[in-house]
Structures are given as structure tokens and as C-alpha cells.
Amino acid sequence: MNYVKPKKALGQHFLTDLSVARRIAATLDHTERANVLEIGPGTGVLTQFLLENPLNNLQVVEIDRESVAYLAEHFPELDGRVIDGDFLREDLSGLFGGEPFMLIGNYPYNISSQIFFKALELRDRIPVISGMLQKEVAERLASPPGKKAYGILSVFLQAYYDIEYLFTVKPGVFNPPPKVDSAVIRMRRNGVTQLDCDEALFRTVVKATFNQRRKTIRNSVKALFPAGLPAENHPLLEMRPEQLSVAQFIELTRWVGQHR
Predict the structure, then answer these.
(1) pTM of the predicted model as reported, rounded to 2 decimal places
(2) Are residues 122 and 233 both part of a single domain?
(3) In the chain, how many domains are there?
(4) Does the pLDDT value for residue 1 go beyond 60?
(5) Using an 8 Å Cβ cutoff, are 61 and 90 in contact?
(6) pLDDT tens by residue, 43-83
(7) What's the rounded Cα separation, in Å, for the pair 83 and 39?
(8) Are 181 and 113 part of one and the same domain?
(9) Do 117 and 215 belong to one domain?
(10) 158 and 211 assigned to the same domain
């Protein structure tokens, strides 16, 4: 098998520029041996450079059976290290024997947000996440408060990771070329092991406010108070969600929890 047809249903845009692939692989700039999981290796353009690094204990997960067959033929060193399945449905609790691992990939644009939501569930085992995704999504993840791109996933990820927007990638280096620019990011786990608030309520508050992002916080959190908003005021209630930092969302969550 010398060719894998990109499949629109899987959001496949195969990277063809080896220099870009090498730069992406280099975003895992660790200095000790580490477990690495690549999502969606496709034809192995990024995989080959990950394999070159002796510090990478690499496994890959690929949903496309045609790509799995291609990898088996062209990368025999991956024997026993290819997970034939859907990352979003895989039980990763036993992966690498339960040890920490880094996550990397040219992420399918149509499910990249879902990938990061799943990674958040495993955040204490994933110290680094890097790779390529749609530029618009990359900007959203790395956006500071006060920007239009700042949203739910920005807050959730920035609560636990420091996020860097590294570089932009133009459509011409893909087969087929996507209709949008791409970007490479890197996320490093910060020192937060537990938020200083009820984490389930934090997620509820963030979603409730951004689902009505044009409204002030006061109006968007009303539904969280069945008996009505408390008489006590709070300055954050007069702001809009895109103005709040992670720390301010934590403060808001504590206030909601105390007054419900």
C-alpha cells in the first residue's frame, strides 16, 4: 500500500511538508525519556520524526483502517504500538501502564475540541499537549481574557495548562488543502492540582455564562438560583464572561456556591 486516500468524513488533511512535521515533533522538547501518544498518525509524516527521537516511548491511535494498514507496512517499528480505534472512545486508564504521557498530533479539525475535553479528564497524567489544529481553535485556546476568541474551552484548559501559540501553518502544505489556516500550539501542565472552589460548579458557572455571553454575569447566572438572586451584590456580576480571568471565575464560583 503506497497511498491512503484522505477521507472527508474523518476530517483528514494529510500534512505533506516534512519541515513543518519536524517542527511539530520538536515541540515535545523533553530531556528525559517519556511516554508519547500520537493521535491520528495517518501516513506517518509526523510519526517518523517522533520515532527518530530516542527519548520518545511512542504509541499511536488511529481510527482509519486504511491508515493502520499503511503504518504496519511502512513503519514495522510500530508493531504492537498502534491502537486501532477511536481516541474519543478508548479507555486510556491502562495506557502506558497508567503512567503519565504526552499528547501530540495533527488533530482532526472536526473533533479537536472533543479531544481536548477528554484530555482534561486525564490532566493529571498528561503534562504536555502539543500539535496542530485549526487556527481559529488554537487562537481560542490561547486567548487571554477580554478577547472575542476567549470562551469555555479557553477557561477550562487555562485553569490547568499554560498555553503557547507557536506558529501558523498555511493550507498549501496539506493534501487536500483545508479552507482555513492551521496553527501549532503547546500546553504545559501548570501547578494547579485542584481549583480553590467546587470544580463541578465551576464548570456549570463557566458554561452558563458563556452560553449567554452577550449578557452580564448577573443575568446569565440567574438560572442557578431557583429562589432568585441574593440581595448581596458582587462586582463580577456587572461584567461579561469574556472579561473574567480563570481566577475571577473561581471567585465567582465560590460566591455562587455560598449563596445558593
Answers:
(1) 0.93
(2) no
(3) 2
(4) no
(5) yes
(6) 999 999 999 999 999 999 999 999 999 999 999 999 999 99
(7) 10
(8) yes
(9) no
(10) no
